[in-house]
Design brief:
This protein has three helices and five strands. The chain is α+β, with helices and mostly antiparallel strands. A five-stranded antiparallel sheet has the order 4-3-2-1-5, with no helix packed on it. A hairpin with a 2-residue loop joins β3 and β4. The longest helix has about 35 residues. It is flat. The N and C termini lie far apart (about 100 Å).
Length: about 150
């Protein structure tokens, strides 16, 4: 019985180490993806050297391309794109290029659907709602006598 206890304990520790390292790696990957999404022109960042600045240009796809960071009005420096330690002040409502392209495609599909008659526009929906409301609110005494 004692001879089985040590191998079971070691196996349990190995499983625990494996699970915790995978969880930590998943968390780090999610943080990196969030940082990449938030690193857009206009975002205030902290660089690894301790400098604060504002992103002027950043390419999230090509991390070998240097990022341009404005550290004072009119003073722009080139830093390695991975030198951005964290986003201090993310831009609220910033739209990435992928989100913009997706929105354009969605808008084009919507316009084509309205033109074909497959989709109703918001103004069509409002007009139909007004007509239904008018019909419901009227009763027999409001109708003219024939």
């Amino acid at each position: 019985m004692d001879s089985l206890l040590l191998p079971l304990l070691l196996a349990g520790l190995l499983v625990f180490m494996f699970v915790s390292s995978r969880r930590r790696m998943k968390k780090q990957k999610a943080e990196q993806e969030k940082k990449a999404r938030d690193t857009v022109p206009g975002a205030e960042v902290l660089l690894q050297g301790g400098l604060y600045g504002t992103i002027v240009e950043y390419d999230g796809e090509d991390l070998d391309k240097p990022a341009l960071v404005e550290i004072a009005p009119g003073i722009v420096i080139k830093v390695h794109s991975q030198a951005v330690l964290r986003i201090v002040d993310p831009i609220e409502g910033a739209v990435t290029e992928d989100e913009f392209i997706e929105a354009e495609e969605s808008e084009a599909e919507y316009i084509a659907g309205v033109a074909d008659g497959d989709t109703t526009s918001i103004s069509d929906d409002k007009r139909a709602a007004r007509q239904n409301t008018v019909d419901v609110d009227r009763d027999d005494k409001d109708r003219p006598a024939v």
